[in-house]
Structures are given as C-alpha cells and as structure tokens.
Amino acid sequence: MRNSIFRCTCNACELNDCNQNKSTESIFIEHEKEKKRKYQQRVIDVEMESFTPLVFGTNGGMGKECKLFLSNPADKLSRKNGESYASAISWLRTRISFEILRSVRTMMCSWV
User: Fold this and answer.
1) Helix 85-111, helix 64-81: angle, nearest 10
2) Minimal CA–CA distance to 100: which of 63, 54, 65, 68?
C-alpha cells in the first residue's frame, strides 16, 4: 500500500442563493458529505488509500475535516521553527489560498 493521501478541494460559497438560509458550518458539512459520497469508496477500493475532503469557504472558513487535516502539519511546523501554532496555521492557510488562486487562474486561462 502506498503512502499517499487523496484530497478533494471544494469552494463552498456561502453567498449562493441556495445557501442563504443555512449556517456556514452546515454548508461545509453538506459539501464534505457530498465529496465523500462521490469519491471515498473509489479511493478505498481502487487506490487503497484514505480520503479527506478539503472544503474551503469563500469567506476564508473551512470544513471540520479540513481543520483536522491542517492541524497536524501546523503543529509540526510550529515545533520545528519554534513559532506559535497560530502563525504556523496562518502561514499554511495563506499558502493554500494562493495555491487555490493559482489553480483557478490556470483553469481560467485554459478557457480562453
């Protein structure tokens, strides 16, 4: 069995018309469940790996599983660099935000 983790990112827009009467947390839970329903069984059966849906909101929030997923590397980074956990998680979130923006930009350029 290989040591890889399959992740799926999804941007949950809280301002979408169908999400206006829902709490942000319930939107994240809904998107996490949807991604698990779509991909988890395939990843387990075919790839024999684990699956963690990374759900980010357009307001900067993230789903519960995404928070849990990022807490481990943030903890390791803070210990390794001798900095606070808050600055490590902030750096990770910023880095991920720029990577998402870069992938959106690449996708938009390919449409032109």
Assistant:
1) 120
2) 54
Distance CA 52, CA 68 (A): 10
Helix extents (H) in 1-112: 24-42, 64-81, 85-111
Q: Taking 70 as the threshold, does the pLDDT of residue 98 lie above it?
A: yes
Number of domains, the chain: 1
Q: How many angstroms separate the CA atoms of 81 and 83, rounded?
A: 6
Domain that holds residue 86: 5-111
Three-state DSSP at 58 gives: coil
Whether 84 shows a pLDDT value over 70: the answer reads yes
- The pLDDT tens digits for 9-63 are 555 555 555 666 788 888 888 889 998 888 888 888 888 888 888 888 877 788 8
Average model confidence (pLDDT) across the chain? 82
Q: Tokens representing 29?
A: 């839970």
Residues 6+ apart with CB under 8 A from 28: 12, 55, 57, 61, 62, 63, 64
